[in-house]
Amino acid sequence: MMFLARAQSSKICRFCKRAFLGSNPAVYCCLFCAFWDRVAPPNENGCCLWTGNRNFDGYGTFTFGSKRRYVTEVCLQLHGIEVVKGADKMHSCNIRHCVALEHLSQGTHLQNMKYAAQQGRLGGRPNARPLVR
Ligand SMILES: [Zn+2]
Ligand SMILES: [Zn+2]
Question: How far is residue 30's CA from residue 28's CA, in Å, rounded to a whole number?
């Protein structure tokens, strides 16, 4: 790996504390560190809440370099899961800024609408059955 000497200097990553070469205003050595430093530890529901930026709809967004991306997509990628193009990212916990991998799934828009209907979010009759496992 070649680094341009010009605008880069040796820094300590804010998350993993390793030394890295980066240009201002970089404070993380890699995408992984920049992501996980903004994720809260799991709460009582197992949700790992994104503490960074959120868009108008309440979905977490993440800017690394010059690209702005949805945190759900970044999370799937960091776990080695391929992001399906055009697929909606669903949260089983219904918390849009949750990035717990177990709560995330990908589906088509149709599946998502069905799921929302099952959850009673589309104005239909709420599902009154108790959850039995
Ligand atoms: Zn790091
Ligand atoms: Zn969750």
Answer: 6
| Cα 112 to middle of ligand 1, angstroms | 35
Look at domain 30-118 and name its CATH class.
alpha beta
pLDDT digits (tens, 9 = 90+) for 40-95: 999 999 999 999 999 999 999 998 778 889 999 999 988 898 888 878 888 999 99
Separation of CA 130 and ligand 1 centre (Å):
44
Give the distance (Å) from ligand 2 centre to CA of residue 124: 23
pTM, two decimals, is 0.71
Q: Can you give the residue ranges of every domain in the chain?
A: 30-118
